[in-house]
Amino acid sequence: MIEISHLIKKYGSHTAVDDLCLTVQPGRIYGFLGPNGAGKSTTLNLITGYLGATGGEIKINGFDILKQPEEAKKHIGYLPEIPPLYMEMSVEEYLTFAAELKGIKKALRRQYIEEAMEMTVITDMRNRLIGNLSKGYRQRVGLAQAVLGYPEVIILDEPTVGLDPRQIIEIRELIQKLGEKHTVILSSHILSEVREVCDYIFILSKGKLVASDTTENLLRLAESEKRGLEILVQGSGEDAAELLGQFDIAEDIRICAGTEEDTSVITCTVSKEEDIRSQLIRTFVGADIALLELKSSGKTLEDIFLELTDQKGGMPA
Question: Would you state the pLDDT for residue 189?
Fold first, then answer.
């Protein structure tokens, strides 16, 4: 559906997109994930033809976005981070205007507008001025504009930014519904959003693609990594850390002060295949060390994201 080859976008000496190559297949919901400034919005603007690339090639359903823009854009519906709405128009007037801009045949406009309003649950708002709608409903109007004419690809740039929790849930449900009939590309820096909605994830960092896999595989990678242990003890923690060091599978042992007076926290990592907690408790009790708390946690998708985007001493971007 979309083929991106060696895509580059520069602003002076700054490279926003750096030799990006990826393929989008039909029938999936894709997540573009990355920290602020990773190049997500720039990449989407290049795909939609809103920006011109410095180098590389983008094909939409076989059409080059630079050489055949009209043909390529027929296959795309786009909702920017700030929806392009006219506040003085009613919902129906705006969608009629959008249908004309998209070149939808006059005989089909009424049907498509009605179906777009029904799909995004804004039919009851058809005669309301957009300027009088809540932010959640304005976002729905933007989505209705994006799906008008049934383009094969729907591109959504940060579609839930600034919405309240209820509105976020409603927009996510709408995206999942769109995914039943369209290929959807969703840009976000919210991991929970991408994890819940998307089938496949692209992770960008500093304009480069640093990971590309199904959501399921990335979660499996997180689950297959090492387990963290956090131990709260009475006292300085040095004796506890020394005892913990006798376990060969305990790595990266560290001591820090606890939040309560005269307590210490010892952290380490161990293999998920071996559970040493019960043995550890017996060892501490036998050594007369006051064990106050023992926590175990696995590596999360958030941890992998931070490592891949080089936010904390992990894998380089």
Answer: 78
Does residue 10 carry a pLDDT above 70?
A: yes
Residue type, 20: L
DSSP letter assigned to residue 54? S
Distances (CA, A) of 276 to 43, 268, 289: 46, 12, 17
DSSP codes, 235-284: S-SHHHHHHHTTSTT-EEEEEEE-SSTTEEEEEEEE-TT---HHHHHHHH
Residues 6+ apart with CB under 8 A from 20: 4, 6, 7, 8, 39, 43, 56, 204, 207, 208, 209
C-alpha neighbours within 13 Å on the C-beta side of residue 294? 15
What local confidence, expressed as pLDDT, does residue 313 receive? 37
Which residue carries 């994006």 as its tokens? 146
Please determine, for residue 108, whether its predicted confidence score (pLDDT) is greater than 50: yes
For residue 262, give both structure tokens.
Answer: 């005269």
| pLDDT in the model for residue 317 | 34
Token pair of 213 as six digits: 């896999």
Q: Are 31 and 198 in contact (CB under 8 A)?
A: yes
At 192, the pLDDT band (50, 70, 90 cuts) reads: confident
